[in-house]
Structure prediction request, 361 residues.
Amino acid sequence: MIPSPLGQHRGRRGLLVTVGVGIVVLALLYGALPQVPELRETLERFGDGSRWWLLAALGFELASFGGYVLSFHATFAGAGSRITWRAAGELTLAGVVASRVLAAGGAGGIALTAWALRRSGLSVREVRARLAGFLVLLYAVYMVGLALAATGLRIGLFPGPAPFGVTVIPGAFAVGVILLAVVLALVPPDLDSRVGAPEQQTRRSRADRARRGLATVPATVSAGVREAFGLLRARHPAILGGVVLWWAADIAVLWACFHAFDVAPPATAVLVVAYFTGMLGNLIPLPGGVGGVEGGMVGVLLAFGVATGPAVLAVLAYRLYAFWLPIIPGSVAYFQLVRRVRIWGDGEAGSAAAGGSATGS
Prediction:
């Protein structure tokens, strides 16, 4: 039996934490927040949203996941792997649940993805390079989008207000991350191996082992940036197109949620900055960034001059689509993925046994 990558104990504990945080959030929504006069009327409108716009938001969310599946499949299919369209869909949805359970900026989803890719037939080196390249490309679009929207607002290229704190600071952060990635691309991708071979670790000091561990981070980023450029040079439109669709359609969910409550959404660039800046709340060690993402998005929207009621209403509706709705299908996909990986393992064991019998005869 192939063990679950999340671990039984850790998975249960994470699930309990997720449920607990969800109860606290719901208690705030239905208990404390309605007592605030400015928000009481807003929350009462939550059930009065336009069905057509809410359906449109659902369609955008489905398109967003479709973009991720498209780019993921284009990156990992073939080359000895078993990543079919169905497997890519299961991995995408299951990764959502893993990210909710383990949080920490999506670390749970990355761990699950690496585990399944390794079991699909890809070597450790292939998994590391391709997954790093895919993630670099994914978040490169994120940072480029944030930098362009924030800078464009500040210099007047895009219409909308441009407060210093929510344009210059996020824009500088995004540019800094991009420059850091470019610099790290100059680091040898095998830097961790040069620091010391794994078999020598028993004879090395704790400080030497720590240096080798630290070298793994820039080496992985370097390999990822190089792989990302390789994916772009391959000119496979599904990879970059799927990544752009993943982010753009998810932002469109937030846009549709404003319309659903008969509220004119802010300018497109304002919406992009609020979305990307709020998403940094996923770095807060809470399951799925619950509380951090909502607070970040609402705070940035308020800084841009959006009224409190519409901002809270639209963001809460958006999170319903982006966070809560995928949990049930994602949980089903997780168990389907574990079953699929077990079948892969049984197939490999059967092939190995057949090969051994043939050799023996």
